[in-house]
Amino acid sequence: MDSERVFNAVLARNLTGHGLTLDTDQSMTTFAGLAMPEVAASATQMGATLPQDWIDEVYGEAYQTLRDGVPLIPGVMEVIARLDHEGIPCCVVSNGSEEKMRITLTPHGLWDRFHPNAMFSAHTLKVAKPDPGIFLAAAAHFDVQARDCVVIEDTATGARGAARAGMQCFGYAAHDNGAALVAEAAEVFHDMTDLTRRLGLS
After folding, report:
1. Least CB-packed of 26, 52, 86, 119 within 10 Å?
2. Is 171 helix (H, G, I), strand (E, B) or coil?
């Protein structure tokens, strides 16, 4: 689901209130895909004055917004169903917290589908994209070599982590031409219904 834009809209409003004026697009360009400690450090360098509990503050605001619902990307359920039909294991790897994933995934039945054995959170593993360790931990869980994995990413940060892990990456560009994903060696696509063909399953 496209929660990045929803989250960055909240983030932009919050940081504007702390002295760093941003709109959603600027927040997306600057922070999309980063772990929150990195966001805090970067925002501070850019001029924001953040309280000590800022990460908890912004998560509280974001969770409230996310509870209003985040729609699924059209076609994603069909992709998951096809992977299941083919017996290909898939999982969720996120820089977000498990709580964030629970809020966004539960309404669509995907929390029960992936939790707890196919869900990997940077908050739990203490390693975040673009560090390849979070992807490698997921691969090790399924006893799969990195070279045999495919990563589907919608941020340059995630695509960089996939490349560092030695994994093929398809970059889903929902809002632009995907240039930032291409720069990280991802193969860009714009329609989730095209993914099964790219995976060789059509």
Report:
1. 52
2. strand
